[in-house]
Automatic annotation (TrEMBL):
InterPro entries: Rhodopsin_dom_fungi, SAT4-like. Its main location: membrane. The keyword Hydrolase does not apply. GO terms for cellular component: membrane. This is Rhodopsin domain-containing protein. Residues 25-296 form the Rhodopsin domain. The chain crosses the membrane at residues 6-29, 77-95, 107-128, 149-169, 202-222, 234-254, 269-290. It is found in: Membrane. Keywords: Membrane, Transmembrane, Transmembrane helix.
Length: 310
């Protein structure tokens, strides 16, 4: 399947803008609609990327719904680094341009940016799951559910660490990964081992998305006292962020094409779907906090704004 370099660049830039807009709306809900801000919000503003709390205090389950994935400033920062590294690599260093002749300096820099983006993606993917898990801990009391979350986090920490180290130390010396185009001397491990490690990590990501976004929230909502219609709505919105799992599946399909032998553009499709996966997760989770803003914009028959959380 052919991917137009121009289309890849445009999609990545558009997603970056949408992510920033989504985060800005979360901040507006927190500061402009609710009217309070905490110390972590100041830190987030300084970092220019932060998601915010949109309170709808009707039940603990709904509280989880609006809080879900709030505490992800590092994920936002890492996503920005990931997308920017991909944009720069595409625009200037031959990534996403199969067959394009680039200088050895451009090829080396492009591969270095790809490696940086890979580490950022792996770290961000784990941090977002940690954030969701800690949010779940606020409402999950059943020991089997909590043990499931702990197990997912432990396995994820191990797999993420292994994958990051394996990717970073794939070649010996480390700089041979990108400096081989400059004539550096060294060697790299088998690409099949890296592919296998990435596939296991991606499988964990997929399982975590479904478990933390759909299964455990569904079990919690099942035992809540909300009416059925509200349960279904909240469960659907809780699972909305799990749409990122679609991008994870597509990325897994392309993992067998991974290579380290030819040009900086060889793995750009995998990198692109990594960027898409991260962006979809952020945007969908941010959308879950916009309800107070929508409620404020909606008018009751008397012309006054409906109460937040109504």
């Amino acid at each position: 399947m052919a991917y137009s370099p121009t289309a890849c660049l445009v999609v990545t830039i558009v997603l970056q803008v949408l992510v920033l807009v989504a985060i800005a709306l979360r901040l507006y809900v927190r500061v402009g609609v609710k009217g309070n801000i905490a110390a972590d919000d100041y830190m987030a503003v300084l970092a220019t990327v932060r998601s915010n709390r949109a309170p709808i205090p009707t039940s603990s389950a709904v509280y989880f719904f609006v809080l879900g994935a709030n505490t992800r400033p590092y994920f936002k920062i890492l996503y920005t680094g990931l997308s920017l590294s991909y944009i720069i690599a595409m625009a200037n260093y031959g990534v996403a341009h199969p067959g394009l002749r680039v200088s050895s300096e451009q090829a080396a820099t492009g591969l270095l940016l790809v490696l940086i983006g890979e580490i950022l993606y792996l770290t961000a993917t784990y941090l977002v799951k940690v954030s969701i898990a800690f949010t779940l801990f606020r409402i999950v009391t059943a020991k089997p559910h909590r043990y499931t979350i702990y197990t997912l986090l432990l396995i994820g920490a191990i797999l993420t660490t292994i994958t990051c180290f394996w990717a970073f130390f794939l070649c010996s010396p480390v700089n041979y990964f990108w400096d081989r185009f400059r004539g550096a001397v060294g060697s790299c491990k088998s690409i099949r081992t890296l592919m296998a490690v990435h596939f296991v990590q991606a499988s964990w990501t997929l399982i975590s998305d479904l478990t933390l976004g759909l299964v455990i929230p569904g079990l919690v909502l099942w035992d809540s006292l909300m009416e059925r219609r509200t349960k279904i709505l909240v469960w659907f919105l809780l699972g909305f962020g799990s749409l990122a799992a679609i991008a994870t599946i597509v990325r897994m399909i392309y993992l067998p094409t991974m290579t380290i032998t030819n040009s900086p553009a060889d793995n750009h499709i995998i990198v692109l779907w990594s960027v898409l996966e991260a962006a979809i997760g952020i945007i969908c989770s941010a959308a879950a906090t916009w309800r107070p803003l929508v409620s404020r914009l909606r008018r009751s028959p008397t012309g006054s704004c409906e109460p937040l959380g109504s």
